[in-house]
Structures are given as structure tokens and as C-alpha cells.
């Protein structure tokens, strides 16, 4: 196990062992324990009482964070020529179709989100093995396959993110930066937690929200009280 640096030990000492913090206290504490020289990302990890192997217990959704992610999201709009100007005006970083499909085939994936149209999805099928593992495959359920390309681009740029429970039953999401005010970190975390609660599968039995942890890129995780969120 790697040794903790002096800064990491100091940060860990500020978090009480075995204590479960309220979301409000954790949002303030994450700013105190973050000590890197760069603007660290703030992440949330929510362990759910579901079995992701069962289709009726899969948890997946989208949420628009009130204060955005603090990250400049790079958007590729794969659209037909008649939609190109619309996508560019909405703020898409890359706009086109066949030339970008070829670039992806050649290994280019320097983007965060792909937005496309239903008519184009057929062309994306063969690229599934490249896009799928990177979480880049557009999906109608997350609003990234739509005829309203402009709206989809604007929402993603404004802080709309999609999430999916992993095979261990945990939802991970980036919800901001440590430079955010504590209130903004709280608002963003609260929004995604409440969204998860609404998405509880009817087939899930027992405790649904098992644990919640807040952390930054370099900081120890802060345990939250799931009942106090």
C-alpha cells in the first residue's frame, strides 16, 4: 500500500473516523481537506441496494446539475448537413458526420459527449466497440439521440450528465470543483441524490441508498449519513 504524503495525512486527520456527516457539513469539509495545487474535481459515489445484473434493477438516468460540473464539456454533434448550423450555434465543439465517423474508426475519441440524430444511429452501430467502453455511445434515454440537437447541446454544456450503476452497485459522478462554494457543491450533490431516490426500481428490496461518499481528486472520502440527505 502506498504511503500517505504529509498533506494526505493532514487531510485525513480532519475527517473523523467512523463519522457519517450531513451533506451540508461534507460539502464544506471537502473544501478544507483538498490540498492539491490544481482545482480538484469533486465526485460522489452512491452505493445502491440493487443487483445490476438484473434488468429490472438497473439504475440509469440523467440529471442537470444546478451549477454545472465546472468542466468544459467537449461535445461532438454527428448530424446531417441541415442540422450543422443549429449544432454550431448551440455551442458544439465539433460538428459533422462522415469525416468524424472515420476519425473515430481511426481511434480518435478526444470528446466527452456525442449528440446525434435517430437517422444517424445506424452508422454508429459498427463503432460500438470503440464508443461503448468509453461511455460515448449516444442513447435516446439520456437525450443524446434527438431531433432537437440544439437543445441537447445546450443542456450538456449547462451541466447535464448521465449516470449508470456499475456492476458493483455503485453510481459514480463528477459534481463540480473544489473551487465551487460549499453551497454549490451541496446543491449539485443533493440534486443527483434526489434523482437517484426517484429512480428506485420497484424490484429493489431492503435498504436502497446503502452509503454515500464525497471526495475530491486527491482527498480521502467523506462518508455521509444516507438518512440525512
From TrEMBL:
Keywords: Repressor, Ribonucleoprotein, Ribosomal protein, RNA-binding, rRNA-binding, Translation regulation, tRNA-binding. Pfam families: Ribosomal_L1. One of its GO terms (cellular component) is ribosome. InterPro entries: Ribosom_uL1_bac-type, Ribosomal_uL1, Ribosomal_uL1-like, Ribosomal_uL1/biogenesis, Ribosomal_uL1_3-a/b-sand, Ribosomal_uL1_CS. Belongs to the universal ribosomal protein uL1 family. Protein L1 is also a translational repressor protein, it controls the translation of the L11 operon by binding to its mRNA. Part of the 50S ribosomal subunit. NCBIfam families: rplA_bact. This is Large ribosomal subunit protein uL1. It comes from Flavobacterium jejuense. The gene is rplA.
Amino acid at each position: 500500500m502506498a504511503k500517505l504524503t504529509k498533506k494526505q495525512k493532514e487531510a485525513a486527520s480532519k475527517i473523523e473516523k467512523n463519522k457519517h456527516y450531513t451533506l451540508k457539513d461534507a460539502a464544506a469539509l471537502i473544501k478544507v481537506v483538498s490540498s492539491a495545487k490544481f482545482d480538484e474535481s469533486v465526485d460522489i459515489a452512491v452505493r445502491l441496494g440493487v443487483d445490476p445484473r438484473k434488468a429490472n434493477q438497473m439504475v440509469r438516468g440523467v440529471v442537470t446539475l444546478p451549477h454545472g460540473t465546472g468542466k468544459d464539456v467537449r461535445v461532438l454533434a454527428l448530424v446531417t448537413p441541415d442540422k450543422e448550423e443549429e449544432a454550431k450555434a448551440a455551442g458544439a465543439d465539433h460538428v459533422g458526420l462522415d469525416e468524424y465517423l472515420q476519425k473515430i474508426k481511426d481511434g480518435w475519441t478526444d470528446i466527452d459527449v456525442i449528440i446525434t440524430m435517430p437517422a444517424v444511429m445506424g452508422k454508429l452501430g459498427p463503432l460500438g466497440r470503440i464508443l461503448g467502453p468509453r461511455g460515448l455511445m449516444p442513447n435516446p434515454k439520456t437525450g443524446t439521440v434527438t431531433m432537437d440537437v440544439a437543445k441537447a447541446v445546450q443542456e450538456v454544456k449547462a451541466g447535464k450528465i448521465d449516470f449508470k450503476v456499475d456492476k458493483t452497485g455503485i453510481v459514480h459522478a463528477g459534481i463540480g470543483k473544489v473551487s465551487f462554494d460549499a453551497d454549490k457543491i451541496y446543491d449539485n450533490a443533493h440534486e443527483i441524490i434526489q434523482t437517484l431516490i426517484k429512480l428506485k426500481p420497484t424490484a429493489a428490496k431492503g435498504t436502497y441508498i446503502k452509503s454515500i461518499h464525497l471526495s475530491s481528486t486527491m482527498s480521502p472520502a467523506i462518508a455521509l449519513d444516507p438518512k440525512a440527505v
